[in-house]
């Protein structure tokens, strides 16, 4: 395949250029059709307009380049003076370059012996007859003309092929699409149509937006150079617009050439500095502000893929391949999105994350990279709540670990690292890592296997056995009770931290803690202090029986409290039992954030009391 692309580049390059130009010009053909013009006349009009604009730009740029070439000798003294200045600044530090710099600045002239010069002057030469001089001039002109035709023949040939193919592409656009659908996937018209529409939409958005942005950059650069007084500003602006199609480096190549020319033109270095500031300002504003606002970097390619594709296609097809590298790679990524066999291209070249956020957290936790998990979490928490983070990322990631643990594929060392990392992450995000009791925790805390219990013990070290005072306002406490498994304990601890983040006085207890509480006197306990009771159950087996039995006991103890059940069965576990019909259950929630909504009245009451 690579050999076909390489040896067939003489044919493939013009055809690909025509196809891409067809994607860029097809909206104009449709615009002419909406005006009531015929299809053939619309194509002819668009092609002629494109040809006229291209020739006009070539003539203008050619005249600018000719004027630049003619004006270069008058800048010789300025170039010589600045090279002398640079030589004086660098000669002490770069003595090894002194000889090369001297030959560039002051090329040595071979001495001429006076006697030899006189002898050469007196040696009679063959007299040129008037008839031979025009013949020599005519021969020289023909040689120059032949050289120019030889140099220009390849671009003219390529341009002619592109123009002809472009006309037929625009004329038979619908037919070409139907043929490609039949060739690529006639048996599955839906998938093929989706792939073609996706590719056409992405390519059209890429071409139109990139062409518009690059044209604007060229205009801004040209106008800025004209304002600061640099000659041939139109030429440099046009080069900036054209070479900006080369990813990442094109505009900076033009900037380097323009600054070099500014150094030759200006008597001092101010023109060079202003030129560099102009290019840097325009490029930074466009790349960091305008482009994200216009099309949000939605081409679907990763930055590394853009660089690698530029290197690959430039090696394969030369400068034209460098310019077409992004759209060509974009077509490959779109194909990988819709063709299962090419899915590898989407993974390698696309900008979509290779791992989902839960998978990423689980992988980083297995590696013990808590800091990277925290960095990702902080970026997520700028947009969403901690409850949403736990629902969408933490709990699914922990369920991956739960399934691997049940299958026995996690080694003991990996399990230890996983537990320590999860404890560190949840503790840091919960804010308790800043307390003195946390920093003085005994080293043996991490030796246990129950992560939820470890996190709860840390809060007990900071706030006491019952995680806070018992003399509190009535209806201000939310009890979060685990149904007993390790995963229940961890989920209950997460729910407790979500509620604490909402300024709710949440306490994490187990059913055994209720019996321990009854065995101790608590005269400071405020009657009716508990307003909400959460029952957290993540195991679907016999869920209804366990929850109903505990709800009956809690209703007898605290009749005024509302009982909310949080049901979180595993990813691959059967659906939870229907608990809405349990007589002692007030509501059922399936997400931490959903369960936290029931505690908002308590949070508002706490805020009002704090304000008073």
Report on the structure:
It contains 25 helices and five strands. With 612 residues, it is mostly helical. Among the domains are: 357-430, no CATH class; 471-611, Rossmann fold (3-Layer(aba) Sandwich). Helix 2 (9-34) packs across helix 13, helix 9 (189-228) runs antiparallel to helix 13 and helix 10 (233-243) runs antiparallel to helix 11 (250-265). The longest helix is centred in the N-terminal third of the chain and has 40 residues, at 132-171. It is elongated and about 110 Å long. The N and C termini lie far apart (77 Å). Residues 116-123 and 433-448 have low confidence and may be disordered.
Concise summary:
This protein has 612 residues and is mainly alpha-helical. The chain contains 25 helices and five strands.
The proportion of residues in beta strands is: under 5%
**Helix-residue proportion:** 55-70%
Quote the average pLDDT.
Answer: 75
Count of strand segments: 5
Structural class by SSE content: mainly alpha
Rg on CA atoms, Å: 38 Å
Low-pLDDT runs: 116-123, 433-448
Q: Biggest sheet: strands, sense, closure?
A: 5 strands, parallel
- CATH homologous superfamily grouping of the domain at 471-611: Response regulator
Molecular shape: elongated
How many DSSP helices? Answer: 25
């Amino acid at each position: 395949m690579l050999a076909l692309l390489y040896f067939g580049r003489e044919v493939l390059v013009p055809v690909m250029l025509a196809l891409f130009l067809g994607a860029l010009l097809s909206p104009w053909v449709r615009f002419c059709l909406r005006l009531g013009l015929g299809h053939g006349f619309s194509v002819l009009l668009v092609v002629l307009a494109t040809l006229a604009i291209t020739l006009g730009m070539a003539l203008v740029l050619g005249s600018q380049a000719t004027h630049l070439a003619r004006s270069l000798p008058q800048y010789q003294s300025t170039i010589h003076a600045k090279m002398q200045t640079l030589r004086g600044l660098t000669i002490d530090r770069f003595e090894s370059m002194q000889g090369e710099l001297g030959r560039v600045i002051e090329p040595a002239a071979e001495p001429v012996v006076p006697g030899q010069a006189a002898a050469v002057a007196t040696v009679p030469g063959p007299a040129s007859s008037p008839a031979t001089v025009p013949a020599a001039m005519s021969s020289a002109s023909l040689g120059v003309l032949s050289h120019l035709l030889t140099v220009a023949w390849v671009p003219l040939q390529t341009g002619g092929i592109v123009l002809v193919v472009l006309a037929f592409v625009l004329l038979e656009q619908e037919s070409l699409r139907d043929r490609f659908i039949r060739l690529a996937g006639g048996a599955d018209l839906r998938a093929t149509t989706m792939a073609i529409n996706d590719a056409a939409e992405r390519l059209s958005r890429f071409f139109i937006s990139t062409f518009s942005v690059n044209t604007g950059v060229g205009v801004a650069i040209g106008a800025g150079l004209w304002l600061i007084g640099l000659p041939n500003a139109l030429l440099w602006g046009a080069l900036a617009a054209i070479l900006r199609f080369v990813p990442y480096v094109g505009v900076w190549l033009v900037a380097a050439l323009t600054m070099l020319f500014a150094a030759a033109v200006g008597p001092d270095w101010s023109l060079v500095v202003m030129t560099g500031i102009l290019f840097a300002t325009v490029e930074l504003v466009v790349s960091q502000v305008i482009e994200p606002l216009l099309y949000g970097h939605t081409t679907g390619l990763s930055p590394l893929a853009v660089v690698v594709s530029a290197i690959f296609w430039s090696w394969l097809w030369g400068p034209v391949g460098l310019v077409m590298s992004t759209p060509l790679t974009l077509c490959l990524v779109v194909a990988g999105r819709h063709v299962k066999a090419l899915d590898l291209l989407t993974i390698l070249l696309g900008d979509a994350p290779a791992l989902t956020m839960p998978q990423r957290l689980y992988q980083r936790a297995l590696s013990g990279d808590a800091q990277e998990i925290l960095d990702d979490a902080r970026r997520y928490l700028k947009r969403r709540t901690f409850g949403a983070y736990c629902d969408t990322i933490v709990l699914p990631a922990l369920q991956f670990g739960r399934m691997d643990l049940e299958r026995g594929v996690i080694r003991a060392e990996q399990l230890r690292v996983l537990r320590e990392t999860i404890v560190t992450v949840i503790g840091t995000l919960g804010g308790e890592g800043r307390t003195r009791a946390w920093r003085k925790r005994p080293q043996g805390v991490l030796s246990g296997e129950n992560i939820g219990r470890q996190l709860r013990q840390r809060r007990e070290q900071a706030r006491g056995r019952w995680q806070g005072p018992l003399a509190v306002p009535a209806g201000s406490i939310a009890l979060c009770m685990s149904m007993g498994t390790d995963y229940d304990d961890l989920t209950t601890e997460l729910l407790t931290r979500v509620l604490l983040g909402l300024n709710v006085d949440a306490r994490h207890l187990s059913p055994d803690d209720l019996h321990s509480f009854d065995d101790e006197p608590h005269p400071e306990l405020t009657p009716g202090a508990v307003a909400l009771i959460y029952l957290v159950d993540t195991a679907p087996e016999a869920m209804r029986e366990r929850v109903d039995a505990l709800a009956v006991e809690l209703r007898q103890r605290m009749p005024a409290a509302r009982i909310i059940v949080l049901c979180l069965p595993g990813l691959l576990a059967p659906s939870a039992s229907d608990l809405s019909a349990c007589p002692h259950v007030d509501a059922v929630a399936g997400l931490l954030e959903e369960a936290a909504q029931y505690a908002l009245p308590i949070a508002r009451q706490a805020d009002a009391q704090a304000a008073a």
